[in-house]
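Quick one, T. Sequence first:
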Amino acid sequence: MDVLSDAIGTMRVGRPSLSLEAADPSREKEVQPFEGARFYVGTTGRIRVAAPDGAVITLQPGDAVLLPHGTAHTLVNATDSTARFLSGAYRLERARPHPLFQDLAGLVSLPARPERYAGLQASIDLLLSELGEQMHGRDVVLPALLEVLLVHLIRACLIGRAGVRTTGWCVALDDEVIARSLRAVHERPADPWTVESLGAHAGLSRAAFARRFTAMVGQPPLTYLTWWRLTMAARLLQTTDVPLTTVAQRSGYGSAYAFANAFKREYGISAGRYRQQHRTDHQHEKPSTQRY
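Structure tokens:
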């Protein structure tokens, strides 16, 4: 199981939005907080992205910036002519953020460096090309390209942080031992995992594995296992009609009763009530505005 794909798939809700925007000289635009992630790509001129904490990134053509937490910010045209840029947004589940996203900074600079971020640059080029040509099928192609772009944005973030961090998800995914245990949990969440069995699967003693996993992931192994099982269960409740007994089994709980208690302890409401609320919300969710 690809842990990164699992993390993104669990967090993503709704449809992404995209637009090509233009800013007149010296124009400033205040962007409010957003329940998800935003990104910008410079295409013409220079755009300055400023966060409330003082972080500032200036986009040249081809440069990208990711705001994984949807932080409020200001956009400023930093040239004396019209600047153009690509603006996109992805709605994310904020009630239970994945540690992967929590590990990312509020404002991430991704300069145009094809030799380092080849996939990201190729995705941006494809997206801009599709936007520039009124071709048949673009309403299918553009959302798919946006999904691909999100993966490459996250990959680029992880690449950029891997060389300067010794702990965190960007390191854990590249650590052969810990990545092996994470894949096992994501592939077989219903297995009766223990710290000892996960450690053995990863090739470490129980104590050594527990220390290493906790240091890198930020949670003890069984805490993460429980978190992932219940996160996956919530996703099943939102997106399927399978019986609660099936949800319990797929989530690693021996009985519907044990699952019901664990779910209510974690979410504060019963699994059935959660399904009713979130399926209703999902059915009435309005599609994101597509400004292609």
